[in-house]
Structures are given as C-alpha cells and as structure tokens.
Design goal:
- The complex is a heterodimer of chains A (265) and B (318).
- By secondary structure, chain A is mainly α.
- Chain A has eleven helices and no strands.
- Chain A starts with a helix and ends in a 6-residue tail after the last helix.
- Chain B is an alpha/beta fold.
- Chain B is 37% helix and 25% strand.
- A six-stranded mixed sheet of chain B has the order 6-7-8-3-9-10, with helices on both faces. Chain B has a four-stranded antiparallel sheet with strand order 2-1-4-5, with helices on one face. Chain B has a four-stranded antiparallel sheet with strand order 12-13-11-14, covered by helices on one side.
- In chain B, α4 packs parallel to α6.
- The chains are: A mainly alpha (265), B alpha/beta (318).
- The interface between A and B is medium-sized, with 27 and 33 residues.
Chain lengths: 265, 318
C-alpha cells in the first residue's frame, strides 16, 4: 500500500494533469457545455409553446415550460458531461503507454482514477453554471432561497460524482475509445424517460412505472422542488440514496477493472 | 560494501507464465548482480517483453520466486516499484503535455519537492539534449526525441534498477549510439540495467551478461565472450564458375551447404583469418578455381541456429 498522505498528493498531481489536458483539448469541453445549451434553447423556443400548453397550468405556454424543463435540463447536462467525458478520457489514457508507466510507479492506484473524477466534476459544474446562466438570461426566475440553491447545487454535484465513477468504469471496460464514447449513450436516455420533459403521468402504463421508479425522476423532482422553493419530502432522501448506490457501485467496479491485469500485447 | 550491494539486484527462480494454453515463460532462472548490465536476447515472441512486464510488476507471474532490489514481487510490489524505473517498447509519455511538463509530472509522482523537481527536470533536459524542445508539445517531437524523453522520465526518481525493453528498436544509427552512451553513463553511476534486444551487436556492446531466451526457456547464459565461444556462427560462401568446380569443392570440404542455382557452397567457419587461410589452402591444394568469396561473421540467426536449431553433420565446424 502507498502511504495515505501520498494518495492525496498523487490525486492532486493527477487532477493537475487532467486540467492541463482540458486546456490543451478545449473542443471536448466546448462540446460538453455547448450541447446542453443548444438543447435548452431547442426545447424552450421550438417545443416550448406546445409542451407548455400540455402541462395543464393556467397560463401554459413557453414561460411555464421553461420553469418546468430546467431541472430535467440540469440532469441532462450532468449526464452528458459526467457520463461521457470520463469514459472517453479514461479509455484514451489506457490505450497510451503512460498508463503502463503509472502502474509500474509507486503511486496510489486510486489517484489515477481520482484525477479523472475530480477533473470531470469541475467540467460538469462549469457546464451547469453556463446552462443556469443562459436559463436566467432567457427569463428563468426560480423561487429558491439561498439554502435551497445550495442544496440543489450540492445534489447536482453528488449526481455528477456518482455518474462520473460509473463513466470511469465504462471507460475501463471498453476495449477502444469508440466503444467508450458509445456506451454512456444509454445513460443519456435516463433523464428523458422520466419526468424531466413531460409529467410522468402522461406516459403509457409500462413506461410510467419505469419513469416513476428510476433514479432520475427522484433527482429531477427533488431539484424541481428545491428550485421552486417548495418542500422536498421523501424524494430528497431517495435521490441521495440512489447517488450513493451508483457512486459506490461505479467506484468498486472501476477499482476492480483498474486492478485487473492489462491485456498482454 | 553494504548488504544491499552484496545481494543480486534481480533474482529469478522458476519463473513461469502462460497466456491460455501457450506457455510464454516455461521456468526460467537467472540473477543480475547489482551494478551490472544484463541483456535478454531473443527473437520476436520469445517472451522478452513478458519477462520485463512481470519483473516491473505490470503483470503477475503464474509461479516462481522473483526478488527485485531484495523485495518479493508478490508480497512487496510497492517497494519494488519505488526502486525501479521502466522504459517500455511503446512510448510512455503524455502526448498532450510538453517535454518539461512530462518530467515535472514524474517529479511530482516521485514525491520530489517543487524546487528539487524543477532542478532535476532542468538537469535531465540538458543531459538528454531536449532543452530547446522543452516547452514544445510532444506532437512536434521526432521518434528519437520521444525515446530520449521516455528514458529521461524513467530517471526522474533516480531508480537504482532500470528496465529497458528494446531501447533502440526503430531508432536511426545516430540515435542508437546516443542511447548506448546514455546506458553506459548510467552504468558508470552504479545503476543496474536489465535490457532486452534483438541485436547481438547491442548486447555485445553493452552487456556484462547475456541470456538467450527462446521458446520460453533460457537456452544460453554467460558473458558475451563465453556466449560467442558457444556459438560457432559464421560461414564462408564460395562461388564457382561451373558445376564441376562446385562438385570438387563439395568433396574437398566433405560437405557444406550447396546452392546449385547460385553455384555456391557455404562452408561453416569461425570467421577468423586462420579459418579463412585453411579454406584457401585447401582450395589451392586441390586446384579448385573460385569465382568469388565472402565471409559472414556470426549474427543472431547463427546464434539461434547454433543453440536451438538441430545440428546436422554438414555443419561441422572447420
């Protein structure tokens, strides 16, 4: 075992390396931040009028849909950033000779993966900031107070943390960078098959059952309650529990995959 | 002499490794004294890279007792990792960073202080002739520069045992010579070097001891001169103007390998002046006319033919 104090220092070193990569390879960050913004504008300005009318509220329309769709949009942003980028970057790393070098050095094995996770978390939170900024610009006015804002941001960070570990594992299990960029697509569907864009009650029976019980519905409903300044109730606990389970499972899977022998060339 | 220097830097006993049903290493034993250069020689697929991957903790052996820097590979891999440096066959550099950043990354991972890390980085850039390219991205580096940076990265933590997997494969003659000089400098500092190569010449120039790996077994081990004595190796090729002379020469030398189309005869020889004189004297005595002659010194092919290949009566050495 490497001394714990080194595990922390090595993680910091690896984070520094990943942040440098981000600066050297800005197109990925730009794509990750840009895509949710385009989605947001698309849903508000193209589908918003009609979807808003379907919500059944009194005024209906675009403004109401904007308020409705933001939590779902934030979930999509998290999945798009934390779900895909780490998988791609980890898979790229593993195909390079430097991964073998790290394995033959006396550095914490945890640190190599932790660097990816921390850098991805930063990337995701930047994207969340941009999406929220654009939302405010186009007229989004949430009723949340300071504490509710903090709680919402903490929950988003927790979801991002959980999805990132899962994504790191997907990157490790992929035998190529192409596979690593395709596998997380399944995750992308989850926020869409829930209450993010339309109420779950409007879905057909089988799909509704799935929507009501999958983690993203709880997460999106919690965010919706926090941002609207209403009480959260049980969904908050369910969301946190889902995040802990996903994070732990992702971490343990990633750890196991990383410690497996590299395939002999 | 401290106890650390007295015991071998690397000790391998009964090392075995299979991938599926294929035994890549079939029970090999050797020891590398501290401060020595040990070359593992062998053709592609002989198990050289697998050996390095096991000794450098990258993959696990199926069985065998291996100690590196006095530490067991199985029980104390972290202590082994702290003592070694590895430069593999595929460049282990970070392509998105500059040369300097790559070295600083290694300094941080070796837990050097900031000042010490910068100092060591500057020193290595200088020594490996990378000062001008230090702040450039690796995409602008040539193959030789990458290889030098790769080795420089390995040296950041001042490891006392260094593994080099085919350090000169694919390099041009000048880069190859630079690499040889670097290895000699390391040896002068008392570093133990374990290298693999396909080139007999390279092993001959650098190594104190050479082991020949073939089909997962060590088929020979010794100093370069011991090994050369074991290997009869070279031959003389005699070319004739017609089949009559070829026939007469064949009987004069009691065999040899004939090439009817090329009208030539391959006579085994140690390659020295003396054996050449014996051949010429015999041709003279029999009045055989020779059209052309060339002398071939032992190369890796001869080594393997001699050590591993079946010996036929025709290849009797003069």
């Amino acid at each position: 075992m490497v001394a714990p104090r080194y595990a922390l220092r090595d993680s910091g070193t690896m984070l520094g390396r990943q942040l440098r990569h981000m600066l050297r390879y800005p197109s990925l960050t730009m794509l990750l931040v840009g895509m949710p913004v385009v989605f947001l504008l698309l849903f508000v300005y193209v589908f918003g009028e009609t979807l808003g009318a379907g919500l059944g509220g009194v005024p209906g329309g675009r403004a109401e849909y904007l308020a409705y769709v933001i939590p779902g949009m934030l979930a999509v942003t998290v999945v798009a950033c934390s779900g895909s980028a780490p998988a791609i970057l980890v898979a790229m790393d593993m195909t390079e000779g430097i991964a073998a070098r790290f394995r033959t050095m006396s550095i914490s094995r945890f640190a190599v993966l932790a660097g990816h996770v921390l850098a991805s978390l930063i990337q995701t939170m930047i994207a969340i900031g941009v999406v929220l900024g654009v939302a405010l610009l186009i007229g989004y006015r949430p009723a949340a107070d300071f504490a509710q804002w903090m709680a919402a941001i903490a929950l988003i960070a927790l979801v991002a943390f959980a999805i990132t570990w899962l994504s790191v594992a997907l990157g490790l299990v992929s035998d190529s960078v192409e596979t690593a960029s395709n596998l997380p697509m399944i995750l992308m569907l989850l926020p869409l098959l829930g209450s993010g864009f339309v109420p779950a009650q409007s879905l057909p029976v089988g799909l509704r059952w799935f929507a009501e019980n999958q983690p993203f519905t709880a997460i999106i409903e919690t965010l919706r309650a926090l941002l609207a300044g209403t009480s959260v109730g049980q969904t908050g606990l369910i969301s946190v529990a889902w995040c802990v389970v996903i994070a732990l499972a992702g971490y343990m899977w990633a750890r196991k995959l990383y410690e497996r022998e590299p395939v002999a060339k | 002499m401290t106890p650390t220097e007295a015991r071998p830097a690397i000790a391998v006993n009964g090392l075995r490794k299979s991938f599926g049903n294929h035994a890549v290493l079939d029970g090999i034993d050797f020891a590398v004294p501290a401060g020595a250069v040990f070359a593992l020689l062998g053709p592609n697929g002989a198990g050289k890279t697998t050996t390095i991957q096991i000794l450098s903790t990258l993959i696990a052996a199926d069985s065998g007792d291996v100690r590196v820097a006095g530490h067991s590979l199985i029980r104390e891999p972290e202590l082994v990792r702290a003592a070694i440096g590895v430069t593999g066959q595929f460049s282990a550099v970070d392509n998105l960073l500059t040369g300097e950043e790559n070295l600083m990354l290694m300094a941080d991972l070796r837990h050097l202080g900031k000042r010490e890390g910068r100092q060591r980085t500057a020193e290595l850039l200088e020594r490996f002739e990378l000062v001008e390219a230090a702040k450039k991205r690796l995409s602008t580096y040539s193959g030789g520069m990458r290889r030098r940076l790769d080795l420089a990265m390995t040296l950041v933590g001042d490891p006392r045992i260094i593994f080099l997997d085919e350090p000169t494969a694919g390099l041009d003659p000048r880069s190859r010579r630079t690499m040889w000089r670097i290895v000699r400098d390391l040896v002068a500092d008392g570093v133990t070097i374990f290298l693999t190569t396909q080139y007999l010449e390279e092993a001959d120039k650098l190594a104190d001891r050479i082991a020949v790996l073939d089909g997962g077994r060590l088929v020979a081990e010794g100093t370069p001169s011991e090994l050369k004595r074991m290997i009869p190796g070279g031959h003389i090729v005699l070319r004739f103007a017609d089949t009559a002379n070829l026939e007469r020469a064949t009987s004069a030398f009691g065999g040899g390998v004939r090439d009817e189309d090329g009208l030539s005869l391959l006579v085994p020889s140690e390659g020295g002046i003396e054996s050449l004189r014996v051949v010429l004297d015999r041709l003279d005595a029999e009045s055989i006319e020779v059209h052309g002659l060339s002398v071939h010194t032992p190369d890796l092919d001869d080594v393997f033919l001699a050590i591993t290949g079946p010996r036929t009566e025709e290849q009797e050495v003069l």
